[in-house]
């Protein structure tokens, strides 16, 4: 019992540290955005630090993820060849995510639900520093978030390949994903949580995090088109 609690505590702390590393990296972009108009030199330095940090974290996250799979991988996560069937399933998952967002946007348009506050903040950041915020949101954030909320999360807390472990893992992963995008529990949290549930289900189905990254990339790209 003590060994189990110690191990789980270590996993929770490890996940928190990885999450903090990602949040620190994204805060460097926020700093650059804040000073983009008033102090371009400081903004450029912040972007430089952000890019270096991105490179270091991507190498570290990838190495750690592969190391975990070598130690314990009952679901046989790995690299699987892209086929027509897999591509069609990715596009179907993307379609589901679009339906969720279109439905939600209609609720906002008809004043049934409020505009997500984090979306308004994101739009403001993009206006101040469009190129780097779009690059980060479309290309970088999906990689970090898939490693965190699907790769590391399932390996840390729901490693057993059972029906209940998979179901509970999908539900909890989606809820945490939703909460991290709103930083509060609200109706809007369910929007992001539902997208997280699709991504978590896709991770278990494809068993290849690269498909998840591509799906997340498509979703974020669509949001800025």
TrEMBL record:
Pfam families given in the database record: Rce1-like
Q: Which GO terms describe its biological process?
A: CAAX-box protein maturation; proteolysis
Q: Does the keyword Membrane apply?
A: yes
TM helices/strands, residue ranges: 42-65, 86-104, 164-183, 189-206
Ordered alphabetically, the record's keywords are: Hydrolase, Membrane, Protease, Transmembrane, Transmembrane helix
- At the top level, the lineage of the source is Bacteria
UniProt keyword Protease, yes or no: yes
Q: Where is the CAAX prenyl protease 2/Lysostaphin resistance protein A-like domain?
A: 130-221
* InterPro entries (alphabetical): CAAX_protease, Rce1/LyrA-like_dom
Tell me the GO molecular function terms: endopeptidase activity
- Family classification: Belongs to the UPF0177 family.
List the PANTHER family hit by this protein, alphabetically.
Answer: CAAX AMINO TERMINAL PROTEASE FAMILY PROTEIN, SLR1288 PROTEIN
Name listed for the protein in its UniProt record: Metal-dependent membrane protease
Write the lineage as a comma-separated list.
Answer: Bacteria, Bacillati, Bacillota, Bacilli, Lactobacillales
